[in-house]
Design brief:
The structure is a single chain. By secondary structure, the chain is α/β, with parallel strands linked by helices. The protein folds into two domains: 87 residues, no CATH class; 151 residues, Rossmann fold, CATH 3.40.50.150. Helix 5 links the parallel strand 3 and strand 4. It has a seven-stranded mixed beta sheet with strand order 4-3-2-5-6-12-11. The protein has a five-stranded mixed beta sheet with strand order 1-10-9-8-7, with helices on one face. Helices cover 26% and strands 33% of the residues. Bound molecules: S-adenosylmethionine. The site of S-adenosylmethionine has 18 residues, from loops. S-adenosylmethionine binds next to loops.
Length: 268
Protein backbone atom coordinates (compact mmCIF):
# COMPACT_ATOMS: atom_id res chain seq x y z
CA UNK A 1 0.00 0.00 0.00
CA UNK A 2 1.43 3.42 -0.87
CA UNK A 3 1.59 6.32 1.59
CA UNK A 4 1.15 10.02 0.69
CA UNK A 5 4.42 11.90 0.24
CA UNK A 6 2.87 15.00 1.83
CA UNK A 7 3.01 13.13 5.17
CA UNK A 8 6.84 13.02 5.15
CA UNK A 9 8.33 15.92 7.14
CA UNK A 10 11.59 17.86 6.74
CA UNK A 11 14.36 17.28 4.23
CA UNK A 12 13.01 13.90 3.04
CA UNK A 13 9.66 15.54 2.29
CA UNK A 14 11.44 18.24 0.25
CA UNK A 15 13.49 15.68 -1.69
CA UNK A 16 10.38 13.62 -2.43
CA UNK A 17 8.47 16.72 -3.56
CA UNK A 18 11.25 17.28 -6.13
CA UNK A 19 10.48 13.91 -7.71
CA UNK A 20 6.77 14.85 -7.97
CA UNK A 21 4.37 12.12 -9.00
CA UNK A 22 7.22 9.72 -9.82
CA UNK A 23 7.48 8.84 -6.12
CA UNK A 24 6.14 5.47 -4.94
CA UNK A 25 6.16 5.82 -1.15
CA UNK A 26 5.76 2.65 0.93
CA UNK A 27 6.13 1.52 4.50
CA UNK A 28 9.62 0.12 5.11
CA UNK A 29 8.21 -3.27 6.15
CA UNK A 30 5.50 -3.79 3.51
CA UNK A 31 5.81 -5.95 0.38
CA UNK A 32 7.71 -3.23 -1.54
CA UNK A 33 9.93 -2.24 1.40
CA UNK A 34 10.89 -5.73 2.58
CA UNK A 35 13.52 -6.34 -0.12
CA UNK A 36 15.26 -3.00 0.58
CA UNK A 37 15.15 -3.65 4.34
CA UNK A 38 16.64 -7.09 3.73
CA UNK A 39 19.35 -5.64 1.44
CA UNK A 40 20.42 -3.21 4.18
CA UNK A 41 19.96 -5.69 7.07
CA UNK A 42 22.23 -8.23 5.37
CA UNK A 43 25.27 -5.96 5.93
CA UNK A 44 24.24 -4.62 9.34
CA UNK A 45 26.07 -6.24 12.25
CA UNK A 46 24.84 -3.77 14.88
CA UNK A 47 24.35 -5.34 18.34
CA UNK A 48 24.88 -8.95 17.18
CA UNK A 49 28.07 -9.45 19.22
CA UNK A 50 26.58 -7.96 22.42
CA UNK A 51 23.34 -9.88 22.01
CA UNK A 52 25.04 -13.24 21.49
CA UNK A 53 27.22 -12.68 24.54
CA UNK A 54 24.14 -12.19 26.72
CA UNK A 55 22.23 -15.11 25.15
CA UNK A 56 25.20 -17.49 25.69
CA UNK A 57 24.98 -16.89 29.44
CA UNK A 58 21.45 -18.36 29.63
CA UNK A 59 21.12 -21.88 28.18
CA UNK A 60 17.85 -23.00 26.64
CA UNK A 61 15.42 -22.17 23.86
CA UNK A 62 15.19 -18.65 22.47
CA UNK A 63 12.16 -16.67 21.39
CA UNK A 64 13.00 -13.85 18.99
CA UNK A 65 10.34 -11.17 18.50
CA UNK A 66 10.05 -8.95 15.40
CA UNK A 67 12.52 -11.25 13.65
CA UNK A 68 12.26 -9.53 10.26
CA UNK A 69 14.21 -11.31 7.54
CA UNK A 70 16.47 -13.03 10.07
CA UNK A 71 19.37 -10.63 10.64
CA UNK A 72 19.57 -11.82 14.28
CA UNK A 73 17.81 -15.18 13.83
CA UNK A 74 20.64 -16.80 11.88
CA UNK A 75 23.37 -15.84 14.40
CA UNK A 76 21.10 -17.07 17.23
CA UNK A 77 20.67 -20.40 15.43
CA UNK A 78 24.44 -20.57 14.93
CA UNK A 79 24.74 -20.79 18.74
CA UNK A 80 23.08 -24.20 18.45
CA UNK A 81 19.83 -23.13 20.11
CA UNK A 82 16.22 -23.90 19.28
CA UNK A 83 14.82 -20.56 18.09
CA UNK A 84 11.20 -19.51 17.64
CA UNK A 85 11.06 -16.42 15.40
CA UNK A 86 7.91 -14.31 15.55
CA UNK A 87 7.23 -11.66 12.90
CA UNK A 88 4.12 -9.68 11.95
CA UNK A 89 4.56 -8.98 8.24
CA UNK A 90 3.95 -11.70 5.68
CA UNK A 91 6.61 -10.26 3.35
CA UNK A 92 9.26 -10.52 6.08
CA UNK A 93 8.11 -14.01 7.10
CA UNK A 94 8.51 -15.13 3.47
CA UNK A 95 12.07 -13.72 3.30
CA UNK A 96 12.94 -15.39 6.60
CA UNK A 97 11.59 -18.76 5.45
CA UNK A 98 13.63 -18.46 2.23
CA UNK A 99 16.80 -17.76 4.20
CA UNK A 100 16.19 -20.70 6.51
CA UNK A 101 15.59 -22.99 3.54
CA UNK A 102 18.96 -21.89 2.11
CA UNK A 103 20.80 -22.34 5.44
CA UNK A 104 22.87 -25.50 5.98
CA UNK A 105 20.78 -28.52 6.96
CA UNK A 106 20.31 -28.72 10.70
CA UNK A 107 20.25 -24.93 11.18
CA UNK A 108 16.93 -24.11 9.56
CA UNK A 109 15.39 -27.19 11.16
CA UNK A 110 15.97 -25.69 14.63
CA UNK A 111 13.87 -22.63 13.82
CA UNK A 112 10.10 -22.34 14.16
CA UNK A 113 8.70 -19.34 12.31
CA UNK A 114 5.46 -17.85 13.61
CA UNK A 115 3.52 -15.02 12.00
CA UNK A 116 2.16 -13.02 14.91
CA UNK A 117 1.94 -9.76 16.82
CA UNK A 118 4.56 -9.23 19.53
CA UNK A 119 2.09 -7.15 21.55
CA UNK A 120 -0.37 -10.04 21.82
CA UNK A 121 0.87 -13.60 21.39
CA UNK A 122 0.41 -17.01 22.96
CA UNK A 123 2.87 -19.75 22.10
CA UNK A 124 3.29 -23.30 23.34
CA UNK A 125 6.00 -23.61 25.98
CA UNK A 126 8.34 -21.18 27.70
CA UNK A 127 11.75 -19.79 26.81
CA UNK A 128 15.10 -19.20 28.53
CA UNK A 129 15.64 -16.01 26.56
CA UNK A 130 13.29 -13.61 24.78
CA UNK A 131 15.06 -11.29 22.32
CA UNK A 132 13.69 -8.06 20.89
CA UNK A 133 16.55 -6.41 18.99
CA UNK A 134 17.07 -3.55 16.56
CA UNK A 135 15.17 -1.02 18.72
CA UNK A 136 11.94 -2.73 17.62
CA UNK A 137 10.25 -2.01 20.97
CA UNK A 138 9.99 1.53 19.56
CA UNK A 139 7.52 0.33 16.94
CA UNK A 140 4.84 -0.17 19.63
CA UNK A 141 2.72 2.46 21.35
CA UNK A 142 2.23 2.40 25.16
CA UNK A 143 -0.70 -0.02 24.96
CA UNK A 144 1.22 -2.29 22.59
CA UNK A 145 4.23 -2.27 24.92
CA UNK A 146 2.03 -3.19 27.90
CA UNK A 147 0.76 -6.18 25.89
CA UNK A 148 4.33 -7.07 24.91
CA UNK A 149 5.58 -7.07 28.51
CA UNK A 150 2.67 -9.23 29.71
CA UNK A 151 3.23 -11.73 26.88
CA UNK A 152 7.00 -11.81 27.52
CA UNK A 153 6.47 -12.50 31.24
CA UNK A 154 4.06 -15.31 30.40
CA UNK A 155 6.67 -16.95 28.14
CA UNK A 156 9.82 -16.53 30.28
CA UNK A 157 11.11 -19.53 32.26
CA UNK A 158 12.14 -18.94 35.89
CA UNK A 159 15.60 -17.35 35.71
CA UNK A 160 15.04 -16.41 32.06
CA UNK A 161 16.11 -13.13 30.44
CA UNK A 162 14.35 -10.57 28.26
CA UNK A 163 16.95 -8.84 26.06
CA UNK A 164 15.87 -5.68 24.28
CA UNK A 165 17.66 -2.80 22.65
CA UNK A 166 16.75 0.84 22.50
CA UNK A 167 18.29 4.05 21.25
CA UNK A 168 18.63 7.44 22.88
CA UNK A 169 18.67 10.37 20.47
CA UNK A 170 20.61 13.51 21.33
CA UNK A 171 19.37 16.93 20.29
CA UNK A 172 21.34 18.56 17.46
CA UNK A 173 21.34 21.84 15.53
CA UNK A 174 19.91 20.11 12.49
CA UNK A 175 16.53 18.35 12.51
CA UNK A 176 17.59 16.08 9.65
CA UNK A 177 20.34 13.50 9.68
CA UNK A 178 21.30 12.67 6.09
CA UNK A 179 23.32 9.47 5.63
CA UNK A 180 24.30 7.14 2.80
CA UNK A 181 24.22 3.36 3.18
CA UNK A 182 25.22 0.53 0.85
CA UNK A 183 23.22 -2.70 0.78
CA UNK A 184 24.47 -6.26 0.26
CA UNK A 185 23.52 -5.91 -3.43
CA UNK A 186 25.89 -2.92 -3.80
CA UNK A 187 22.92 -0.56 -4.22
CA UNK A 188 23.37 2.82 -2.52
CA UNK A 189 20.61 4.36 -0.44
CA UNK A 190 20.04 7.78 1.07
CA UNK A 191 18.65 7.55 4.62
CA UNK A 192 17.16 10.68 6.12
CA UNK A 193 16.05 10.79 9.75
CA UNK A 194 13.86 13.69 10.81
CA UNK A 195 13.66 14.48 14.52
CA UNK A 196 13.53 17.60 16.64
CA UNK A 197 14.50 17.54 20.35
CA UNK A 198 11.42 16.73 22.39
CA UNK A 199 9.48 14.98 19.63
CA UNK A 200 8.19 11.53 20.55
CA UNK A 201 8.74 10.05 17.12
CA UNK A 202 11.58 10.15 14.61
CA UNK A 203 10.78 9.56 10.96
CA UNK A 204 13.22 7.58 8.84
CA UNK A 205 12.90 7.71 5.04
CA UNK A 206 15.02 5.68 2.62
CA UNK A 207 15.38 6.51 -1.06
CA UNK A 208 17.85 5.70 -3.82
CA UNK A 209 21.12 7.66 -3.59
CA UNK A 210 20.69 10.83 -5.66
CA UNK A 211 23.37 9.95 -8.22
CA UNK A 212 21.74 6.52 -8.79
CA UNK A 213 18.22 7.89 -9.32
CA UNK A 214 17.11 7.62 -12.96
CA UNK A 215 15.97 10.73 -14.84
CA UNK A 216 12.50 9.31 -15.35
CA UNK A 217 10.32 6.45 -14.18
CA UNK A 218 9.17 5.60 -10.66
CA UNK A 219 11.29 6.39 -7.59
CA UNK A 220 10.77 3.92 -4.71
CA UNK A 221 10.86 5.61 -1.29
CA UNK A 222 10.30 3.86 2.04
CA UNK A 223 9.38 5.40 5.33
CA UNK A 224 8.83 4.36 8.94
CA UNK A 225 8.13 6.10 12.25
CA UNK A 226 10.14 5.10 15.31
CA UNK A 227 9.27 6.20 18.83
CA UNK A 228 12.07 7.66 20.93
CA UNK A 229 12.27 5.54 24.09
CA UNK A 230 15.26 6.64 26.18
CA UNK A 231 16.76 3.76 28.20
CA UNK A 232 15.92 5.29 31.61
CA UNK A 233 12.24 5.64 30.66
CA UNK A 234 12.18 2.09 29.34
CA UNK A 235 13.78 0.73 32.54
CA UNK A 236 11.04 2.42 34.61
CA UNK A 237 8.31 1.18 32.30
CA UNK A 238 9.66 -2.39 32.44
CA UNK A 239 9.81 -2.25 36.25
CA UNK A 240 6.18 -1.25 36.52
CA UNK A 241 5.32 -4.18 34.23
CA UNK A 242 7.15 -6.61 36.56
CA UNK A 243 10.38 -6.85 34.55
CA UNK A 244 13.49 -5.78 36.47
CA UNK A 245 16.51 -4.61 34.43
CA UNK A 246 19.60 -6.36 35.80
CA UNK A 247 22.19 -5.23 33.24
CA UNK A 248 22.75 -2.52 30.61
CA UNK A 249 25.27 -2.86 27.81
CA UNK A 250 26.36 0.02 25.56
CA UNK A 251 26.07 -0.57 21.84
CA UNK A 252 28.31 1.06 19.22
CA UNK A 253 26.77 4.36 18.09
CA UNK A 254 25.00 4.27 14.71
CA UNK A 255 25.67 8.00 14.27
CA UNK A 256 26.81 11.01 16.29
CA UNK A 257 23.28 11.56 17.57
CA UNK A 258 22.31 7.97 18.51
CA UNK A 259 23.34 6.01 21.60
CA UNK A 260 22.27 2.37 21.63
CA UNK A 261 21.74 0.29 24.77
CA UNK A 262 20.99 -3.41 25.23
CA UNK A 263 18.91 -4.06 28.36
CA UNK A 264 18.72 -7.39 30.20
CA UNK A 265 15.58 -7.86 32.27
CA UNK A 266 14.19 -10.70 34.38
CA UNK A 267 10.76 -11.30 35.88
CA UNK A 268 10.59 -9.40 39.18
C1 LIG B 1 13.57 -2.90 12.82
S1 LIG B 1 12.93 -4.35 12.06
C2 LIG B 1 13.97 -5.55 12.82
C3 LIG B 1 14.00 -6.87 12.13
C4 LIG B 1 15.15 -7.79 12.57
N1 LIG B 1 15.12 -8.05 13.99
C5 LIG B 1 16.48 -7.19 12.18
O1 LIG B 1 17.31 -6.95 13.05
O2 LIG B 1 16.69 -6.98 10.98
C6 LIG B 1 11.41 -4.51 12.87
C7 LIG B 1 10.58 -5.71 12.47
O3 LIG B 1 9.43 -5.75 13.34
C8 LIG B 1 8.31 -6.16 12.59
N2 LIG B 1 7.12 -5.75 13.35
C9 LIG B 1 6.54 -4.53 13.41
N3 LIG B 1 5.51 -4.55 14.26
C10 LIG B 1 5.45 -5.82 14.77
C11 LIG B 1 4.59 -6.47 15.70
N4 LIG B 1 3.59 -5.80 16.28
N5 LIG B 1 4.80 -7.76 15.98
C12 LIG B 1 5.82 -8.44 15.38
N6 LIG B 1 6.66 -7.89 14.48
C13 LIG B 1 6.48 -6.59 14.18
C14 LIG B 1 8.51 -5.48 11.26
O4 LIG B 1 7.75 -6.10 10.25
C15 LIG B 1 10.01 -5.66 11.06
O5 LIG B 1 10.31 -6.85 10.40
Amino acid sequence: MTTRTATVPGLAGQVLAGYGDRVRLHDLYDEAGASVYHDLAAVDTTEIRELLRSVRAVPGPVLELAAGSGRLTLPLLALGREVTALELEESMVALLRDRLAEAPAGIGARCTVVQGDMSDFQLDGTFAVVVLGTTSVSLLDAEGRAGLYAAVRAHLRPGGRFLLSTVDVAGADEDDLDLEAVGASGRRYRMIEHWRAGQEVRRVTILPAERDTPQDGPVLALTTSIRVLPPDDLVRELASAGLRVVARHSLPAASHRHTGVLLEAEAA
